[in-house]
Amino acid sequence: MADQVYLTPEGRAELERELDELLTVKRPELARKLKEAVAEGDLKENADYHDAKEKQAFLEGRIQYVESVLRAAILITNDGSTGEVRMGSVVTIVEDGAGEEETYTIAGAAEANPREGKISHESPIGAALLGHRKGEKVRVKTPGGEMVFKIKRIK
Predict the structure, then answer these.
(1) Residue 118: pLDDT above 70?
(2) Residues 61-78: what's their mean pLDDT?
């Protein structure tokens, strides 16, 4: 994992909720399933046991990942617009030649989810927007080629 992990307050709260559910609901549930599978006897050919062990390994890995992200997290605060795009900004852009606006929150990589409108500050678009102001045009090199966006709003 990277040394610096950036999270918005909402992202941190979401990870804390996930960790709580993993520890208080999912882990005990899996432990019960494992205990039941062991009680069935012969473990070599016990599909329930092998399935529960596989799920347990994944669950423990996820718990360790979420805990490490929360420990290393640097909180991003958006305490009002500075007039330029920074981490935590909500930016509305429009591609040159297109009429449809797109709005993104600039988040850390651990929290990025483009389907939810959260893009990483390390992504091509996120990195290109950082430091720019409303009205500016920004060139972005993407895997699909170069694109130009105009910044319409920054919150």
Answers:
(1) yes
(2) 91
| 127 within domain boundaries | yes
pLDDT (0 to 100) of residue 1: 46
Print the domain residue range for 47.
Answer: 5-75
* Same domain, yes or no: 9 and 71: yes
Query: For residue 152, how many C-alpha atoms fall within 13 Å in the half-sphere facing its CB?
Result: 12
pLDDT value at 137 more than 60: yes
- Cβ neighbors of 7 (< 8 A, separation 6 or more) are 15, 69, 73, 74, 75, 76, 107, 108, 110, 111
In the chain, alpha helices (H):
9-21, 27-39, 47-72, 124-129
In total, how many domains does the chain have? 2
Q: Are residues 35 and 68 in the same domain?
A: yes
pTM of the predicted structure, to 2 decimals: 0.73
Judge if 63 and 114 occupy the same domain.
no
Q: Is the dihedral of CA 69, 74, 79, 80 positive or negative?
A: negative
